Amino acid sequence: AEIADELARAGVCVISGLALGVDGVAHRSALDAGGLTAAVLPSPIDRVYPPRHRALAKDIVAAGGVLLSESPPGRTTGKPDFARRNRIVSGLADAVVIVEAPDRSGALLTAAAACDQGRDLMAVPGPIDSVASRGCNRLIADHQAEIVTSAVALVQRLGLRPAGRTPLA
């Protein structure tokens, strides 16, 4: 929430996959900060997935953000659509930030796509005994991702000015 808030306040469009958990929090935080967000769906736009995020999807559009999908209206959603969605998320971004990534997660698919596409990859470290932190910690340890130590430091690393703050020298 803090990272998406800070990025949105710095003028960054927050891009994510509208999934439950971190994705939904990122979209909502960007909206609450008065920023823009883009949601890349694994499903057609007429069948927002997950259904629990239909209201969030409407809020994104109402705030001037966008919903994106490469699936035509009426099509059913299958497992390969999620991996394609993650490739599109990284493809739209200048930099990809992985916040949580259990082993064999969609977040790690996004990280791999970011590396393949030459995007900057960053990760938030977590406790070494946390299943949700394994992927992030491994990306950092293997020098595939830069460590994110704070939302403000991330904004400055991206060459942006944190909202309401003077840049550090």
Question: What attributes does this structure have?
Answer:
single chain; 169 residues; alpha/beta; three-stranded parallel β-sheet; 7 helices
Describe the structure.
The protein is α/β, with parallel strands linked by helices. The chain has helices at residues 2-9, 22-32, 54-62, 79-92, 106-116, 134-141, 151-157; strands at residues 14-16, 37-40, 66-68, 95-98, 120-123, 146-147. It is built from seven helices and six strands. Strands 1-2-3 form a three-stranded parallel β-sheet.
Beta percentage is 5-15%
> What count of helical segments does DSSP give?
7
Strand order of the largest sheet: 1-2-3
Order of helices and strands: HEHEHEHEHEHEH
Assembly of the depicted chains: single chain
Shape: globular
Alpha-carbon distance between the termini? 26 Å
Task: Estimate the helix proportion, in percent.
Answer: 40-55%
Radius of gyration: 16 Å
Structural category is alpha/beta
Largest sheet, in brief, is:
3 strands, parallel
- The whole-number mean of residue pLDDT values reads 95
Task: Name the poorly predicted regions.
Answer: none
The count of DSSP E runs of length 2 or more, i.e. the number of strands, is 6
